Protein: DC-UbP/UBTD2 N-terminal domain-containing protein
Organism: Nelumbo nucifera
Amino acid sequence: MGCAGSSQSKGDETIKKIRKPKPWKHSQPITRAQLAQMRDEFWDTAPHYGGQKEIWDALRAAAEADLTLAQAIVDSAGVIVTSADLTTCYDERGAKYELPKYVLSEPTNLIRNS
């Protein structure tokens, strides 16, 4: 038997287990370099959308980590995950953080270099 605190409480909606985003398609086929540039541009400008820089840094680290580590990062940063794929989150002060799918996963029409 597990202890009472070992699983998510049904009444606690602020804790969501992180999962991979659903497959998505970019408007045009893009290369890995173009995707990296889009991601860099987003993360460079993200703090200007509001919220705390520390939370943006934690979200970037979570977006670039595997799911287990990502869960630990958002939990330790006090991020409230409302979309399990990390597209919509809040900090403890109520600031909203929205992440585009392109920073969380690769598109289905990514051009792979041979």
